[in-house]
Specification:
3 helices, mainly alpha, single chain
Length: about 60
């Protein structure tokens, strides 16, 4: 992703990009030693949809 963004920047191509890290769902996290952060899948989906919608509204 970063290579393509750099290429686009150097060559004057318009671009919009992003990365959204999602955490484990509680059932998966529970199987890990020292369970990491987790959120139910439904909440993660809502968060990602909202983040994408807001990113599409923003025009820099």
């Amino acid at each position: 992703m970063y290579t393509l963004l750099r290429y686009a920047d150097l060559n004057g191509y318009p671009r919009r990009a992003g990365f959204i890290h999602v955490v484990y769902t509680p059932d998966v996290a529970a199987r890990k030693p020292n369970p990491p952060a987790s959120l139910p899948l439904e909440l993660q989906v809502k968060a990602v949809v909202l983040a994408v919608e807001l990113a599409l509204e923003y025009r820099a």
